[in-house]
Amino acid sequence: MNDPAIFFDTKLISIKTLEFLDPDKIETINVIKKDTPINKVSYHGQLYITSKNPEQYDFISLEEIKADFTKINSNDVVYMINGKFIKENLENIKLDRNDILDVEVTNSEAFYNSRKSDAKFDIINILGKTKENLENKNKILIRGQEVIGVK
Fold first, then answer.
1. Are 1 and 46 contacting, i.e. CB atoms less than 8 angstroms apart?
2. Contacts from 31-38 at CB under 8 Å and sequence distance 24+?
3. What is the Cα–Cα distance from 91 to 40, expressed in whole angstroms?
4. Strands 122-128 and 100-106
5. How far is residue 72's CA from residue 78's CA, in Å, rounded to a whole number?
6. In this structure, are residues 89 and 39 in contact, taking their beta carbons and an 8 Å threshold?
């Protein structure tokens, strides 16, 4: 059985996108218990989420993040969000551009050479503005020792 079709301010999003929404910014949630086929995918029910301020969100897809934040032209890409691999529904995952802290790309020869496979791909890790990521952004490593809050 599939997940429900989830609409956030009328835009279809994946269930994974919900992980990155601030619950305090949600105005209403409506549930409709009716199976819905969309783009040849059968969803079990519908979930309509309305934010308190729909204009504040600037949702972009993973492909748009790749185009806007990296110089990668290849389709051989693996996506991560906050260090977790994204394995399915890539086309429906949308993130708020305003909540992206950083986009890290791993594509060095050292990385390729460390694996036993001839397959080459880039890893794009999208870091959101979570409390943990914001705290780690302010840490600096000096000779292997952590120095906190020094910039």
1. no
2. 31/4, 36/5, 38/5, 38/12
3. 14
4. antiparallel
5. 12
6. no
